[in-house]
Please model this.
Amino acid sequence: MFKRMATTVIVLSWAGSALGAHPLITDDTGTQGKGKFQLEVNSEFNYDKEREERVTTKETGGEVAAILSYGMVDNLDIAIGVPYQWLTVEEDGDVTSKKDRINEMSLELKWRFYEQSGLSLALKPRIALPIGADEKGSGAGEATFGLYFITTKEIEIWAFHLNLGYVRNKNKPDERRDIWHASLAGEVGAFRSLKVVANIGVERNPYKTSGTHPAFILGGLIYALLDNVDIDFGVKGGLNKPETDYSILAGIALRF
Model:
């Protein structure tokens, strides 16, 4: 149970800042443009249930994250994100663990270094800094860092995004230090202000005792409420046991 709970917290922590156009988990190569800002407020609500050795374990949790991005130059962004997370674990209807926290502040750069004929490539290094109190169980106590390689291909009303990532995990005896990520997303302009998006991906299980890596599938919508305001909604489902059964995602992005 405790490993399952910790895996959920790890996924929430990384997902909060690794997002592209929410609700997608997979990032795109797009940047804000020199001197421009984007503020995102994204939310995720998770549910997972399983039964082992006649004990039913249910986990409910979520996250609300604020992410501010700034265009340093046309092809280089800097972004800072702060997530607030909560998690409740029940066994046969009895609450065995309940936590809520401001978890880890993330700092990222996104550098688009190639762009030609609808194909663009970018690199995104990131670092997550613990800002909670470790003795209260609300911080990792150790910084983690990662690097993502991002590819975007645009074909008329279609766009496809590929992410390959690496995260250097915390130094814990039962966890792997090296975590990889691979995901693919697509989007299509269904109408003038509406995009339909889909996403699939897998990430290495952080626990050494498991060789099954969490995999997900996601579908959603992005609607341009105004020229500088987008709202979105998505549903993410687990494709195997280590992944959360399902998640509901919603967010808003404001550019200025």
Summary: The chain has one domain: 2-255.
